[in-house]
Specification:
With about 140 residues, the chain is an alpha/beta fold. The chain is built from three helices and six strands. α2 crosses α3. The relative contact order is 0.17.
Length: about 140
Amino acid sequence: MKKIKKFRNTVFLIAVIIFIIVAIFGYFQFNKPHRDVQKAKVDFTITASALLNEFESSSTNATEKYIGKILLVSGKVESINLNDTIASVQLTGDGTFGVNCSFNSYGAKGLKEILVGNLIQVKGECKGYIDDVILNNCYLIK
């Protein structure tokens, strides 16, 4: 009987220790600072059309190549969405889809001066492809 009770206490202690380790890891992952895209080295320089074409022709290869990488993308502004919480610019790709560039409050500086049809360069982190290629934490390059 004492062996069973000792075994249960040991298992409980191990479970508590594992829970604490997982909780600490989760806390640090949740509070990990975002990558500073503005200061990060550019991994690829590409046009919006070429980037979209790569994802459309082979999304598996393009995903392996670009996801999580810092891209410097140039293209023609198709649309601009500026409000208090969201700043995004759509760069023209193949006519229907393109590159969706999301800006945080720091990166959105200078967006008010651009117009639809302007040619711009945007630096951002590639996050994926869902009809549009998604770039996050973008900065407008002047």
